[in-house]
User: What shape does this take?
Amino acid sequence: MGKGDLSMREDVEKITSAVRVELDRALADRDRSRAPLDERVAAFRASRLLAERARTRRMWGGAGAALAVAIGVLFFPRGPRSPERAVLSFTVGDGAGEIGAPIVPSTGSVPLHFSDGSEIDIHAASTMRVASTTKSGAEVVLERGRIRTHVVPRAGNRWTIAAGPYRVQVKGTRFDTEWEPTTQRLRVTMQEGRVLVSGGCLDGARELGAGDVSEMSCPVTAAMPREAPSPTRTEIERAPRHRALQLRPRASRRTAVTRRSCPRPSLRRPPSGGRRRHRLKT
Assistant: This one.
């Protein structure tokens, strides 16, 4: 190998080594420039992963808390449960009351005590009965006289006092009711609370409050006897025969005799070639 070839080879090796040095230097510079970006990407991924984990923990924590509250409400209610209401019962004086039985005090007043604490005092010469009782109240019918009512206020109360055509709806109050059936007069005297009076001659419900005194009456009209309408021709034709005969006008005696008279004789022409005869048709 000549000196020229050897020198050329040395030059190539020098150039190659220089290129390698420059390439290594460029790669090192690139790595140094990419390191901050990789660090930022890694930090972002780590923060995102931490946020997802925190959100998952919050979600499961909220679901667990809601489940714990539901279990606590179902199986461990707060405070004692309120007892369920029962149908009201009542006593008349010292004895048990009976639904629908009339209560007529002979002398003095008779008290009615209900199981919810409500009371009704029936004055003397009055007639009253308890028509029905429910869990939320009772329906009382005042037929005559005067009563004093005290209803204990409770949620959902439904008390009704019926006096003739009138209805007094009570929620919780104290008042007097007086009813006179002969004159159809109702008098309500309020001490406390509020009531609604409806029916009778009232156009709508009338509200009464504490201290109000209201007197209502309807005019009493005597019922006039109604005349029976005369039968129509269709009713006569559809009526049974014995009724139709009763509705027909009676024939006079002369007419009846005329109808029973014998008919006049009629003549018939005999057949040709025979003897003519007179036949009496009866």
About this structure: Residues 3-75 form the longest helix (73 residues). The chain has two domains: 1-75, 90-217.
